[in-house]
Amino acid sequence: MTLDIDFVRAQFPAFSEPSLAGIAHFENAGGSYACGPVIERLTRFYRQRKVQPYGPADPTRLAGEEMDEARTRMAAILGVAADELSFGPSTTANTYVLAQAFRQWMKPGEAIVVTNQDHEANSGPWRRLAAEGIEIREWKMDPETGHLDPETLEDILDEKVRLVCFPHCSNVVGEINSVTEITAVAHAAGAFVCVDGVSYAPHGFADVGALGPDIYLFSAYKTYGPHQGLMVIRRALGELLPNQGHHFNGGSLYKRFTPAGPDHAQIAACAGMADYVDLLADHHGAPAGKPSKRGTFVHDAMRAREIELLQPLLDAVKARNAVRLIGPSDARVRAPTVTLALNGSPEAVNAELARRGIMAGAGDFYAGRALAGVGADADKGVLRLSFTHYTAQDDIDRLLNALDDLL
């Protein structure tokens, strides 16, 4: 199925915004444009519903209903129960809260596995538990390829391991990890699984229920929505961990791990992400049925579009002597997040791209451990070029021409 790119781009006000005309967005890994339904819902909430939700009067009743709609519909797309999805201020904050729950639940000497492929948000909070007597074991990626091999995970699992944390894909390596396979290995050893989906979710929402992890986290501001963190915690684990919210909310699964007051408007606006999935599904002929199946239909269409655009970019950079492509060169096994270690200055190249109307990124992207793990200079940083399904072919052509000149 071919994605109708004109229809897709029509759903994003940014592409008709005069101030953004002539700018090609290649730093989507840092944040995507918001889709129209999200902006409309957020605006409506602030205009009509900016009151304490869940009361009997119409404005407050409707505010609560819109918040519940966002959780119910997004959970259905993710293939989980509505109360297994929580909203928090960010994925970093959500992970920190989870780490505190595990700190209280685990005993000294028990272990958590982390990787050196992760963004700091899904690594640092767990690593800090070493100060509480929790053993931290690092599952290392291949220093040449950046690949996380499930067989090497088996070597560090034993009866002490309570949790295995890894990314669906790294924000600098880009390779898509086999969540189902890795989860099965961890579960067979008696460990729970926490997956950081921040860098994967912009390329299609995962059917978390089918994949099988116990925790799955991602950020709405990278999936065309507001600045919220979405966190799936499956019931068996969520009811086992200590409550981190107000004591009177301990009986509500989706409130147990949200100690801060929720951002009512942004939660309600997250229903716009479900609206966008439905718009794409209906326009491209997806049959009616389970939201998770329709979400998978849209996911697959997004990925097919991205693979088509990504392979020429990988081909253009992988053979250059002055450039090292980090991660695989096969578009079918990686997200369209292309990280380049350069002989020269990444910041200088990024500045020149900006002068040409190309918005990219340079730095370590809070992934210093991952860059060091593949032998890149984390202090120097890297150039990162990232896009999504809404990127136009003309933008890819502009980028390739600019890289020809600059690299």
From TrEMBL:
One of its GO terms (molecular function) is transaminase activity. Keywords: Aminotransferase, Pyridoxal phosphate, Transferase. This is Aminotransferase class V-fold PLP-dependent enzyme. Gene3D superfamilies: Aspartate Aminotransferase, domain 1, Type I PLP-dependent aspartate aminotransferase-like (Major domain). InterPro entries: Aminotrans_V_dom, PyrdxlP-dep_Trfase, PyrdxlP-dep_Trfase_major, PyrdxlP-dep_Trfase_small. It comes from Seohaeicola nanhaiensis. Transmembrane segments: none annotated. Coiled coil: none annotated. It comes from the Bacteria. The keyword Transferase applies. Residues 26-241, 300-399 form the Aminotransferase class V domain. Pfam families: Aminotran_5.
